[in-house]
Structure formats: C-alpha cells, structure tokens
Amino acid sequence: MRADRGSGTVLGIVMVTLLLFGGSACWALVSVSTARQRAAIAADLVALATARAGCPWGGVIARANHVSLDACEFVGDDAVVHVSVHPAGTLGPWSLPTVSASSRAGPA
Predict the structure, then answer these.
(1) pLDDT at 1 (0 to 100)
(2) Residue ranges covered by each domain of the chain
C-alpha cells in the first residue's frame, strides 16, 4: 500500500492537464469556426456594396465589419471580392490561422 501513496495527486494533475488541453482545443475550434462565418458574411456584404458602388465603398463596408479587403475586382459586370479575418486570441505561443472568404455579386 505504501507504493500507491500520492498516486491520486498524480492522477488528478494528469486529468486537469488533459481537461485544460481539451478545453483549449475546443475554444480554438469555435474561434476559427466563428471567424469563418464572419468572413463569409462580410464577403457577401462587401460584394454587394462593391457591385453597387465600386471598390472604395466595399473597403468601407469591410472596415465596418472588421475584416481586411484583400482583393476587389470586376469580372464583366460582377464584383469579385476576397476578404480575410484573424480569429480572436491565440492558443498559447501559437496564433490561430487567418480565415479568408470570397464572394461574387452582380448589378441589381
């Protein structure tokens, strides 16, 4: 019985560590997923604004939605935009990947 002394403490530390790593991984997944949705929605809004009023107005809409307008061009009558957004926070010493989205909109 003496050899088992302190094993509960070690087991508790291991379980808490696994819980923290699991929680951090879940938080990172949710953060990237939320950023992906934000990028997709913002790309649609920016494309609509660009199709209606040009690339400068698309930049205004992108800044209002806290995304970066990476590219804005017209292909025929359609406006094609690419936006990117960085997820909130970091995962320890690693940063989360930047998420991008693109959208196309034509004249109304």
Answers:
(1) 55
(2) 2-105
